[in-house]
């Protein structure tokens, strides 16, 4: 028998492939695995410190010893890498972020401890200056202006010091012009040809960063905004030009930050350059999901997994996410 629906669809029925669990699994186009996850973590001075971050429920600042314990769990879950962010003492912060050049600063202490005690997990370090400055900006501030070239020189030196400490991948997030090429040259001259660069190729002047700034202690320090060096959220073509320059200068991998508001940029960058692309599901994205789930407005676990899968569908090879541990546990239960 032929139904009017057959006449309308020409006997093409999309629901045939959805009729059972096994058929849905058989034709699923994108899959999220633990191999796609990078866990961003916050490091503080001291010993046996575990400080909850109010704006990011479930996320803590950790002293190096507690970070090592957490990294062991992450490695056991199969998470490939951590991205470390320091919250250093206020008396170590200054106009130029000079503590970023200290061989034994907090981020380098964390790297050495992780490589010693959890050698199987990758360590990705950020060389932006905002955790080290007393004004909260990612570069050197002179007469109210973030100076590009001096910042690049300092960031390149800091990258070498981080590589000396054992960092596997340098992730410059400061958005200064020319930083990728300068870092690549500095790393190679120091004998660190094997250390990769995961560039924050398109980092937007977004409203989604608020909880992160609380986490690294820069929220109350920031003077003005970062619009003179971060990308305008309205500009997709400019973002592609920025990414292209980073590729030309030697970036090995590219980051889009934030994630969900810029899925189109993820797709465009992957299609254009073919390099590994990572979305950073930032603190504001995480906090929204957590807050809505805590109020019972959404199924937090399902929304978490759906958003992570969205990045894969948009062409990302992986995701930097505060959900990494939760997602890895969930994926382990599915296996």
Q: Would you identify the CATH architecture?
A: Alpha-Beta Barrel
Q: Helices and strands: which structural class?
A: alpha/beta
CATH fold-level assignment: TIM Barrel
Biggest sheet record:
8 strands, parallel, barrel
The end-to-end distance, rounded to whole angstroms, is 42 Å
CATH class type: Alpha Beta
Order of helices and strands: HHEEEHEHEEEHEHEHHEHEHHEH
The helix content is: 40-55%
CATH homolog superfamily: Aldolase class I
Taking Cα atoms only, what radius of gyration do you get, to the nearest Å? 21 Å
- Domains, number: 1
Strand order of the largest sheet: 1-4-5-8-9-10-11-12
- Overall, the morphology is globular
Q: How many β-strand stretches?
A: 12
Active site: 203 (schiff-base intermediate with substrate), 257 (schiff-base intermediate with substrate)
EC number: 4.2.1.24
Keywords: Heme biosynthesis, Lyase, Porphyrin biosynthesis
Family: Belongs to the ALAD family.
Describe this structure in words.
The chain has 335 residues and is α/β, with parallel strands linked by helices. The chain has a single domain (32-334), classed as Alpha-Beta Barrel (TIM Barrel). It is built from twelve helices and twelve strands. The strands form two sheets. Strands 1-4-5-8-9-10-11-12 form an eight-stranded parallel β-barrel, surrounded by nine helices. Strand 10, helix 9 and strand 11 form a beta-alpha-beta unit. The longest helix is centred in the middle third of the chain and has 18 residues, at 148-165. The radius of gyration is 21 Å and the shape is globular. 47% of the residues are buried. The model has no long low-confidence stretch (mean pLDDT 95).
């Amino acid at each position: 028998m032929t139904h009017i629906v057959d006449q309308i669809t020409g006997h093409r029925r999309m629901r045939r492939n959805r009729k059972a669990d096994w058929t849905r699994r058989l034709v699923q186009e994108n899959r999220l695995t633990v191999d796609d996850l990078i866990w961003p973590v916050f490091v503080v001075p001291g010993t046996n410190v575990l400080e909850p971050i109010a704006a990011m429920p479930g996320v803590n600042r950790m002293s190096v010893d507690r970070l090592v314990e957490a990294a062991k769990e992450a490695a056991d879950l199969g998470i490939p890498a951590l991205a470390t962010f320091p919250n250093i003492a206020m008396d170590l912060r200054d106009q130029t972020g000079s503590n970023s050049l200290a061989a034994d600063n907090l981020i380098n202490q964390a790297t050495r401890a992780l490589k010693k005690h959890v050698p199987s997990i990758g360590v990705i370090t950020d060389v932006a200056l905002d955790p080290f400055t007393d004004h909260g900006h990612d570069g050197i501030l002179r007469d109210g202006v973030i100076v590009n070239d001096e910042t690049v020189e300092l960031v390149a030196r800091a990258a070498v010091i981080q590589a000396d400490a054992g960092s596997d991948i340098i992730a410059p997030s400061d958005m200064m012009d020319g930083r990728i090429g300068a870092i690549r040259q500095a790393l190679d001259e120091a004998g660190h040809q094997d250390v990769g660069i995961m560039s924050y190729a398109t980092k937007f002047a977004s409203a989604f960063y608020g909880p992160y700034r609380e986490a690294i202690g820069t929220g109350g320090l920031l003077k003005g905004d970062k619009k003179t060096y971060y990308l305008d959220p309205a500009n997709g073509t400019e973002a592609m030009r920025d990414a292209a320059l980073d590729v030309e200068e030697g970036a090995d991998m590219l980051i889009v930050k934030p994630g969900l508001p810029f899925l189109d940029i993820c797709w465009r960058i992957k299609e254009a350059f073919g390099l590994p692309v990572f979305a950073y599901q930032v603190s504001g994205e995480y906090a929204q999901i957590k807050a809505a789930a805590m109020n019972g407005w959404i199924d937090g676990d399902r929304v978490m997994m759906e958003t992570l899968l969205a990045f894969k569908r948009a062409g990302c090879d992986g995701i930097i996410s505060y959900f990494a541990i939760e997602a890895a546990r969930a994926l382990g239960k599915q296996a």
